[in-house]
Specification:
This protein is α/β, with parallel strands linked by helices. It has one domain: TIM Barrel. Helix content is 35%, strand content 19%. It contains eleven helices and nine strands. Strands 1-2-4-5-6-7-8-9 form an eight-stranded parallel β-barrel, surrounded by seven helices. Helix 6 links the parallel strand 5 and strand 6. The protein is globular and about 50 Å long.
Length: 254
């Protein structure tokens, strides 16, 4: 099967809701994911940290300080403590009382859709935590539509140890890592490259190289139609955005 088959989608663009519809709802919450689905996103992206007992939780930062009413490192907090946090009030009063979701919560919400899932594993996860993440996705029946992405590529290796056929995406946040990312993904029909959009916009030759090697490309974070159009023209159709509404409307014009 070709790489395009594993990462195929309807239409010419896959609009990926970055941390859910994070321009209109608190990032990495069930409300943000639900709103992304309602707005017409083709895929959702969210981040995974782990509680002190190893439970995967949907959160970007190492601490809960920025996006909840709590303080401290998420890895030092128990699940009960995390569930007591308000993950919505910081964004707006309408979201007061929004819970901090676990991976299970997010997958349960998405179970009724066919939306692709980009699950970003934050650096520093222990092997047992990675095994738990892989098992939750597999047991939920989401393995074929989930792409595990990470800046820490060794985490993706560990996921593959538990699920050899897992779809993975190597995040490239620095142009200096592009060569190594190409080496890892070339010939792997279940891998893609996930570039910071600024890198590709500055050096379109990277997109041409990926095309010649049949490596699927994704990119983040794109909040203007102008940038999205430039990326699509260079062969980058999987576009993560905070402005889901804007890019969904743009996609309808293509």
């Amino acid at each position: 099967m070709s790489p395009a088959s594993h990462f195929s989608f309807d239409g010419v663009v896959e609009v990926v809701a970055h941390r859910g519809f994070s321009a209109r709802a608190p990032e990495n919450t069930l409300s943000a994911l639900r709103l992304a689905l309602d707005t017409g996103a083709d895929a959702v992206e969210f981040d995974l940290q782990t509680a002190c007992d190893g439970t995967p939780v949907v959160l970007h930062d190492e601490t809960v300080d920025r996006t909840t009413n709590g303080t401290g490192f998420v890895g030092a907090l128990g699940l009960d403590s995390l569930r007591d946090l308000d993950a919505g009030r910081w964004f707006g009063g309408a979201f007061a009382g929004e819970p901090l979701p676990t991976l299970f919560d997010a997958l349960d919400l998405l179970a009724g859709s066919n939306t692709r899932i980009y699950a970003e594993i934050k650096p520093g996860r222990e092997p047992a935590h990675l095994r738990t993440i892989a098992e939750l996705v597999r047991l939920g029946g989401h393995m074929e539509r989930t792409v595990f992405i990470s800046l820490e590529w060794s985490s993706l290796d560990a996921i593959r140890e538990h699920e050899p056929r897992a779809l993975v995406g190597y995040i490239v946040e620095d142009a200096a890592r592009a060569r190594a990312a190409f080496e890892r993904s070339t010939g792997d029909d279940r891998a893609l490259l996930d570039f910071d959009a600024r890198i590709l916009l500055a050096d379109p030759s990277l997109a041409r190289r990926a095309a010649s090697a049949a490596i699927p490309l994704a990119t983040w974070t794109v909040d203007t139609v102008e940038a999205a159009s430039q990326l699509l023209a260079m062969g980058v159709p999987r576009i993560a955005t905070n402005r889901v509404d804007l890019l969904v409307e743009w996609k309808r014009t293509l």
